[in-house]
Amino acid sequence: MRFLMTTKPSDAPPDENLHVEMAKFVEELTAAGVLLATGGLEPGGVRVASAGDEITVTDGPFTEAKEAVAGFALVEVRSKEEAIEITRRFRAIVGDGESVIQQVFGP
């Protein structure tokens, strides 16, 4: 089962220990074959919306930046519970904030 785990931006500045602990975590998940992809996302982005025949393109940043996704990880695990445990470990490293886990369907 594949899951996309996303995290929202935090107000807390990262410290050196965070980078060290996160590097260990990513290395462990990669070596186990669980982590398929990970990365941070630019805060602005571009929003593309459609309504009927009209397509609207809007450059960010957007007013509700706290709702934006700051980073992601795509993992392949045996169960939703395993994805939750990985996300718990991630949150323990990065501290206060919010992450979302969504199952990825398809081949």
Automatic annotation (TrEMBL):
Domain YCII-related: 1-90
InterPro entries reported in the protein's UniProt record: Dimeric_a/b-barrel, YCII
Top-level lineage group: Bacteria
Gene3D superfamilies on file: Dimeric alpha+beta barrel
Cross-referenced PANTHER family: BLL0086 PROTEIN (PTHR35174:SF1), BLL7171 PROTEIN-RELATED (PTHR35174)
Family: Belongs to the YciI family.
Record-given protein name: Uncharacterized conserved protein
